[in-house]
Design goal:
It is a single chain. This protein is an alpha+beta fold and 280 residues long. It folds into two domains: 17-158, Alpha Horseshoe (Serine Threonine Protein Phosphatase 5, Tetratricopeptide repeat), CATH 1.25.40; 177-239 and 246-279. 47% of the residues lie in helices and 21% in strands. It has helices spanning 3-23, 26-39, 44-56, 65-79, 84-100, 105-117, 121-134, 141-164; strands at residues 177-183, 192-198, 203-209, 215-218, 224-229, 232-237, 248-253, 258-262, 268-279. The protein has an eight-stranded antiparallel beta barrel with strand order 1-2-3-5-6-7-8-9. Strand 7 (248-253) and strand 8 (258-262) form a beta hairpin. Helix 6 runs antiparallel to helix 7 (121-134). The longest helix is centred in the middle third of the chain and has 24 residues, at 141-164. It is rod-shaped.
């Protein structure tokens, strides 16, 4: 093998191994993992891997300028917060910084405080947990653990109160169909009538029944429209004679169970029928 070719081959192999080593260096891995996290911010398992890798680097990874700007926005929002939503906005700005530099322990702490003040206890717990992971030697670790315990208690308390809250009684909807069994006590040999009022269609139908309660088949009246006026159900039966313009207007009083009838010429017939209601 010629010396010049051998030298070229060695240079190619050296460049290959150098590029491979560089591509697999911890800092390059960190950059790649941060990009993956930015594409999927809710991947806490990946975030924890980034924090663990950043802790091994010496010197520590530099904080990008965009993350520093987001920290400034978060601090301003927190300082000027007047409501829960303002504190929540501050937490969102810290989260922007942590998406650019997921290893910043102080930002996790500050984000947790902002969430806590916003009443977002679950998010606060997550931020404090990540703070302890990013600052394993934190001097306030015990205090933070107590703080997490308090937030967990508040969450459970809210769940218990919600589950023990007495729910208002459900108002039962009125039945769609009401049945009225009507009979004439003064005429023991007369047929009884069962009126069926369908409130979904406002149609009343009727069937005859024997005095002993047995069904005697449909009456001569076809299905008819009815109106509901307070406790009264009003419907008109067809005139018995084609020469008569109006039929008989029937008025069933659901409170008393009586039926009154107005004839084609306006005469009032006090019915001797007495009705009892049963729901279907």
């Amino acid at each position: 093998m010629k010396p010049a070719f051998r030298l070229t081959l060695l240079i190619v192999f050296a460049m290959f191994y150098w590029n491979t080593a560089y591509a697999e260096s911890p800092r390059t891995q960190l950059q790649q993992m941060v990009k993956q996290l930015q594409a999927n911010p809710s991947d806490d398992a990946l975030r924890e891997k980034i924090i663990a890798l950043a802790l091994k680097l010496n010197p520590k990874p530099a904080t990008p300028d965009a993350a520093i700007m987001a920290e400034g926005a978060a601090e301003y929002a927190f300082k000027n917060a007047k409501s829960d939503s303002d504190y929540s906005d501050a937490a969102k700005q810290y989260e922007k910084a942590l998406l650019l530099a997921p290893w910043l322990a102080d930002d996790y702490f500050n984000c947790g405080v902002a969430h806590e003040k916003a009443g977002e206890n679950q998010q606060a717990i997550r931020s404090f947990d990540l703070y302890l992971l990013a600052a394993p030697d934190a001097s306030d670790a015990q205090d933070i653990k107590k703080r997490i315990g308090g937030l967990q208690y508040a969450l459970q308390k809210a769940v218990d109160v919600s589950s023990n809250t007495v729910k208002p009684d459900v108002v039962q909807a009125p039945p769609i169909v009401q049945l009225f069994d009507c009979h004439a006590p003064k005429e023991p040999r007369a047929f009884g009538v069962t009126f069926s009022f369908d409130f979904s269609s406002h149609i009343v139908t009727s069937r005859l029944k024997y005095q002993d309660g047995r069904d005697a088949g449909p009456s001569n009246d076809p299905p008819l429209s009815f109106q509901e006026v307070g406790s009264h159900l009003i419907w008109t039966t067809p005139p018995p004679d084609s020469s008569v313009a109006n039929g008989f207007q029937n008025n069933l009083n659901r409170d008393t169970g009586s039926i009154d009838t107005i004839g084609p010429f306006g005469q009032l017939y006090a019915s001797n029928y007495q009705c009892t209601m049963s729901n279907q």
